[in-house]
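From the pipeline queue, job 12 of 40. The input is one protein chain; the requested action is below.

Action: predict structure.
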Amino acid sequence: MTAALRAAPTARAARAEPADAEALFALSAPFMRSGELRERPPAAYRRPEELFLVVRAPAHDAYDAPGAPLDACVALRVLAPERGHPATGLLHNLCVRADRQGRGLGSVLVSAVSAAARRAGLRALVTATTGDGALFLRHGYREIPAAAAPPAFAAGLDPARGSRVFARPL
């Protein structure tokens, strides 16, 4: 059975509310502890320049009801314009609760963040992962050398983490 078929049929991404900041931090914390995500303070989940999209737990009547527990999240940040690079967004902080992985929620979020980036007028997305990047490859990303990414983004990469960089035009 494919991941998309295992996902709850009504699972959809919704914009996180300011009141979701603590839940975003709690969802992200296990990934920070494992090293899959960089450490970020709780205040980072309240920054107005970050667009967080979430998938809420299906036990609630409405997936997008503020305050419902979170199953998954992703963030989009618009990168500062840089010469030689189109208007680019950074997809980051992609997390799916351990007991909800393998159900297509990551795909729901990657698709939703791509749509949000297009609506914002962005022309490309970039991301980095310590994983295999299979999810990104399935969504039209291609692996690129860090040197080919927008310089300010590439400068923030920690070589010790062994991250792979992926990009996709929109």
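Job complete. The mean pLDDT is 90.
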